[in-house]
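Sequence in, structure out. Go.
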Amino acid sequence: MAVKRKPRQQSQQRSLSLFLRILCPLCGACHFETTEKYDADKMPHPGMIKMLAKYKGYGWPEPPQDDSAGYGCLECLDCGNALAPNGKLKVGK
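Output:
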């Protein structure tokens, strides 16, 4: 007799983030993700990104959550390259 399995609940499935991972355009490292303020059609600012939870305990600085700051202060934690050298963030899932 075969056992019928219940379909998995949504909470048991792999949770998908509503936010996009931010990739370094030079080395490909990913330490940040977008926030709800992210808009691909606007110039990026530090308020659009946040550090991934798994890196918060490393002592690396969080980007300032300042919407008026420019994108020049957004840097890769591995290689130091700008995350938005052309005014756009490189994002992926």
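Check: The chain has one domain: 17-93. Residues 8-16 have pLDDT under 50 and may be disordered.
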